[in-house]
Amino acid sequence: xxxxxxxxxxxxxxxxxxxxxxxxxxxxxxxxxxxxxxxxxxxxxxxxxxxxxxxxxxxxxxxxxxxxxxxxxxxxxxxxxxxxxxxxxxxxxxxxxxxxxxxxxxxxxxxxxxxxxxxxxxxxxxxxxxxxxxxxxxxxxxxxxxxxxxxxxxxxxxxxxxxxxxxxxxxxxxxxxxxxxxxxxxxxxxxxxxxxxxxxxxxxxxxxxxxxxxxxxxxxx
Length: 221
Description:
By secondary structure, this protein is mainly α. It has one domain (3-220). Helices cover 78% and strands 2% of the residues. A hairpin with a 2-residue loop joins strand 1 (172-173) and strand 2 (176-177). Helix 6 runs antiparallel to helix 10 and helix 7 (125-131) packs antiparallel against helix 8.
């Protein structure tokens, strides 16, 4: 990778980490569009670029959410009983989504699915918790707690389901591109706690506005 590619990934990692701590969204929605640009620049096969961007983004969430979880947990913001209740179903879905089914999906359809997920998918867990009368800041912090088991299950599925794919570049574990993971995580693990700290200073109306603006900007992109 060139210094420009590395710098772009590290910058995106910093932003994604901050937003993961702030809103409990994991950060993949920030990273995937930019990784597609970087992977195109690196000349990766068009058949696997979108798959690799999504899988690599999910792998980074393992580390980013761990940092965000620790920051939220220190202040007692995460409802661990709620996380334990919701995690099993989310893990099963992530394993299925990360299996051979994911590899078989046409890239254009996968791009469309990702665009739809950007707009709607990230709104599912937090509003559901709010509907269950969970306090807003607890809901967003607990969403970070849910990010780790989802990312772990999905990453395992992505690597297993794509192992041995002849279109993958050197440095890949299945669809997960390790050099990109290292560049992103090197920054995101430090900015996630900053986002968590900021979340405690903002009221819920401000958080919702940030959440909405970011998602629609990314969907338009």
